[in-house]
Amino acid sequence: MPKYSTTRIIRIASTKGGAGKTTVSINLAIALASLGKEVILIDGDPSNASVADHLGIQEPYMSWEDVAFLARPLNDAIIKYTPGNIDVLPGVDETGTLNLSPDQILYLTQQADTLDYEYIIMDTAPGILIPEITTTLPQFVSESIIVSTPDEPTIKSNNKLVQLYQENTLRYGVVLNRVGANSYEMPIEQIKNGYNMDILETLPEDKVVPKSIGEHMPAILLNKDAEFSKKIVKLADDVVNRKY
Ligand SMILES: Nc1ncnc2c1ncn2[C@@H]1O[C@H](COP(=O)(O)OP(=O)(O)OP(=O)(O)O)[C@@H](O)[C@H]1O
Ligand SMILES: [Mg+2]
Question: Which CATH class is domain 8-240?
Answer without folding.
Answer: alpha beta
